[in-house]
């Protein structure tokens, strides 16, 4: 069994819903990925997507999750000094993905909620290990911070408040957090 297929099955064991991405991209390699918000793929489907020498990358549907995604040096500076609890964390090709529990209210995907920091949540997905980043680096779990090592934490209060403010702003001005 290849590493990506093993990862997909592990994600399913953790109650997450994986689906394939085109190699080294963030683009789905299925015609419709949104049904996987409400169901997980079968073992047969996982074998089809990631078995038999397939080079598909993998994404996790973020329905029921909140993913904080600081990108690059600017994104890392944006979250520097802010409290981020210990939670499963992915090292990407140019930043991190911090995985949090569902906050209990609908959170829209949001690009640049603060400089170079995105939010992936309802109606979204996050590229996951062991996918390949466009830089050639592999997505990988931060040592000691995989889904097998540590439970999902609740998002920090500063992040919840920032999301609430940005979503309220979007309702009234329609200028915040493009999807």
Which strands sit side by side, in order, in the main sheet?
6-7-3-5-4-9
Number of strands: 9
The biggest beta sheet reads: 6 strands, antiparallel
N- and C-termini, Cα separation: 36 Å
Account of the protein in words:
- With 179 residues, this protein is an alpha+beta fold.
- 25% of the residues lie in helices and 22% in strands.
- The protein has a 6-stranded antiparallel beta sheet.
- Helix 1 (3-13) packs antiparallel against helix 2.
- The longest helix is centred in the last third of the chain and has 17 residues, at 157-173.
- The protein is globular and about 45 Å long.
- It starts with a helix and ends in a 6-residue tail after the last helix.
- Mean pLDDT is 91; it is low at 171-179.
Concise description?
The protein is α+β, with helices and mostly antiparallel strands and about 180 residues long. The protein is built from four helices and nine strands.
Summarize the topology:
Elements: H1 3-13, E1 18-21, H2 43-50, E2 57-61, E3 65-70, H3 72-79, E4 89-91, E5 96-101, E6 110-114, E7 117-120, E8 125-128, E9 140-141, H4 157-173
Antiparallel strand pairs: 1-2, 2-8, 3-5, 3-7, 4-5, 4-9, 6-7
């Amino acid at each position: 069994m290849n590493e990506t297929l093993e990862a997909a099955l592990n994600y399913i064991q953790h109650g997450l819903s994986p689906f394939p991405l085109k190699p080294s991209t963030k683009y789905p390699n299925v015609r419709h990925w949104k049904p996987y918000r409400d169901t997980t793929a079968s073992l047969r489907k996982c074998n089809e997507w990631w078995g038999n020498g397939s080079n598909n990358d993998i994404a996790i549907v973020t329905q029921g999750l909140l993913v904080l995604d600081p990108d690059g040096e600017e994104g890392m500076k944006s979250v520097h000094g802010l409290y981020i609890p210990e939670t499963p964390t992915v090292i990407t090709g140019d930043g991190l993905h911090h995985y949090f529990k569902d906050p209990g209210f609908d959170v829209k995907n949001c690009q640049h909620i603060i400089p170079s920091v995105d939010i992936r949540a309802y109606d979204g997905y996050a590229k996951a290990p062991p996918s390949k980043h466009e830089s050639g680096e592999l997505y990988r779990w931060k040592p000691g911070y995989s889904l097998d090592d540590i439970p999902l934490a609740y998002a920090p209060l500063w992040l919840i408040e920032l999301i609430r403010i940005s979503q309220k702003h979007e309702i009234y001005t329609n200028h915040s957090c493009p999807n």
